[in-house]
Structure formats: structure tokens, C-alpha cells
Design goal:
The chain is an all-beta fold. The chain is built from no helices and 29 strands.
């Protein structure tokens, strides 16, 4: 910014000449009172690497013009994706699979990246820890203490990833198919305001497979509950059915259940003949205030392979005590 001073005994009116393309002056004209000053902000917006050397000229009414030298260098961030391919293979409908997605900024300037998955509802982005990103109010700026991965405000599957200079941001790309189909597309990733660069192009592929074991609900949301005597838990039930053409042995991986989470499930395993169903009872007895989330792998016939296995997800949001702690 620059500040035109004024010391004469009358108001001074100024107006800047039209700046070069990409340069914005605010305000471009104004009036400075006697003994006062006016801050003028100069913004430079570049869509490619370039150097700018020019002069900004402000005409002063009844006075000599003011000339301000402007020098700027624009550097386009050099961002790459560390993973060579993103292929989920076959994933059964209702299951969830995740693969790492790591962005590396090899330049010294920060970068704001956009991933628009709005046209690919079976795919989503999460943090490296598997958590949902917080909501962002915009994509301007790439510095500060903001969460590096955020959902752009007003959208559901448009993500902003801020990568500081000479650093990396790890993330997880998830695939949760809702239909039996093959899916393939180019990852819609770009630097905010710029076109996709060749070293950022990655193909994403995955296939939704018919579920051998069908769940009436794969995501159970219990809603806000009061903390009360554990002898009186909240209850919910779901149904699992054998949709295969052969008998199935199923088992919930209870080792994935967080300790002291308040969830109790029964039964956790069983055998199902073709077309047979079984009811799983879920009990939830929160003991302290806070949100609880659990994601349990559902193994079929002893198989514990990573991709394609169904999951049972349950959460209990922030709870309130019925009596003072």
C-alpha cells in the first residue's frame, strides 16, 4: 500500500491513471483532508509466472502528479501428486475403501488447491486421520493457521487444500459406491484460479460390486442422547441378509471399536444360509459428554482383505448429562 500525504491548507483530490492488466488500485480516486492521509491498496493478480515493473501515476488536482514505482514477481506454485495411480479396484456396494492422496508443493510460495468431486458422489476427501474436513468460508489465501483441508462453504464435495511452500499435505480419497458400476475419471484437481497442470493429472478408477451380504443400514446415526444409567442403554437394530448364492459366515471386527465408546453389539458373528437374515442389536450407553464414532469392518467367510469389505458405521453426537457431573 501507499499513502499520499497532504500538508497544504486545502483538500487535495487525487486520481490514479488506469493501472496495467492484473493490477487493482483501491481506491483509484479520492480526497485527502488538510494534514491527513489516505491509504491506497495495490493488488496484483497473475495467472502465470511473470515479473512486473511499472509505475503508478496519481494526478493531483492543482498539483504535481505522484509517481510510485511498482515491482512484483509472480511465481506459480509447483504442486505434484506423490501417488502414481489411484485405483480402488472392486468395492462392494455399501462398503468404503480409502487410498492416500499426498500433495507436495516444491515451490517456496503457498498454494491453494481445489478438488471438485461434486460430479462424483461415490468419492469423498478426508484428512489423513480419516476425519471429515471442516467447512471453509472461501479459498482466498494459502497461509495462516487454517486447517489444510477444508470444504468450500456452500458446497458438499468441493474441497480446498492449502499447501505451504516446500511442504506436503497428506489426505485420504474415499470410495463408497452406491451402485453396481465401473467408474473412471480424471481427478478434478487444480490450483485455485489456474488450469490443471500436466504433473497434477491423475486417473481415478473404481468398481461397485454386488454385495454378498446386505445391511439394512450401513450408517447408524443415533442422534443426541442424554447421559443416564448404563443399565438403561439406548437401543437400535439393523438386519443383515445373505444376498449370495451360497451360505455365508460373517463376523464384525470388534477390535476396531474404540475403548469405552459406549457401544455394545450382539450378535457379532453368525452363519447365514442363502436368503437368510439376522438382526444385530446395537446398545449405546454414553458415560461422558462428547461425540463418539465407530467404523466396524464386516468380514465374510474369514476374509480380511482391505478393499471391498463392508463396514458398519455408528455415531453418537454430543450428549448431555441428566445430572451434574
Amino acid at each position: 500500500s501507499t499513502t499520499p500525504p497532504h500538508t497544504k491548507q486545502e483538500e487535495a483530490t487525487f486520481q490514479f491513471e488506469e493501472p496495467p492488466t492484473g493490477v487493482t488500485i483501491r481506491p483509484q480516486k479520492g480526497c485527502v483532508r488538510v494534514g491527513g492521509s489516505c491509504e491506497v491498496v495495490v493488488e496484483v493478480l497473475c495467472t502465470k509466472s511473470q515479473q512486473i515493473e511499472t509505475s503508478l501515476v496519481a494526478a493531483i488536482r492543482y498539483g504535481r502528479p505522484i509517481k510510485v514505482a511498482l515491482r512484483a514477481e509472480a511465481v506459480v506454485p509447483d504442486v505434484t501428486i506423490l501417488e502414481d495411480e489411484i485405483d480402488f479396484g472392486g468395492v462392494v456396494v455399501g462398503a468404503t475403501s480409502t487410498l492416500p492422496l499426498t500433495l507436495r508443493n516444491q515451490s517456496s510460495v503457498p498454494a491453494a488447491m481445489l478438488i471438485d468431486l461434486s460430479k462424483h458422489p461415490a468419492f469423498y476427501l478426508s484428512t489423513a486421520e480419516g476425519e471429515d474436513p471442516p467447512c471453509d468460508d472461501g479459498v482466498e489465501g494459502a497461509e495462516g493457521d487454517e486447517a489444510p483441508i477444508q470444504i468450500v462453504s456452500g458446497t458438499t464435495r468441493v474441497y480446498c487444500i492449502r499447501v505451504k511452500g516446500s511442504s506436503e499435505v497428506p489426505a485420504m480419497l474415499g470410495f463408497s459406491p452406491s451402485e453396481i458400476a465401473e467408474m473412471a475419471f480424471e481427478l478434478p484437481l487444480a490450483i485455485a484460479g489456474l488450469d490443471i497442470k500436466p504433473n497434477m493429472r491423475r486417473a481415478v478408477a473404481g468398481e461397485g460390486l454386488k454385495a454378498r451380504l446386505q445391511c439394512s443400514e450401513t450408517v447408524v446415526r443415533l442422534g443426541e442422547k442424554l447421559i443416564r444409567n448404563p443399565k438403561f442403554p439406548y437401543t437400535h437394530s439393523i438386519t443383515v441378509s445373505n444376498a449370495d448364492n451360497a451360505a455365508i459366515k460373517w463376523e464384525l471386527d470388534m477390535a476396531a471399536l474404540p475403548p469405552a465408546c459406549g457401544f455394545l453389539l450382539a450378535p457379532i458373528s453368525g452363519d447365514l444360509a442363502v436368503g437368510q437374515s439376522c438382526t444385530i442389536n446395537i446398545q449405546y450407553a454414553p458415560t461422558e459428554k462428547g461425540s463418539v464414532y465407530a467404523s466396524l469392518p464386516l468380514h465374510i467367510n474369514g476374509s480380511k482383505r482391505r478393499n471391498g469389505r463392508p463396514y458398519l458405521q455408528a455415531d453418537g453426537p454430543t450428549c448431555r448429562r441428566t445430572t451434574p457431573p
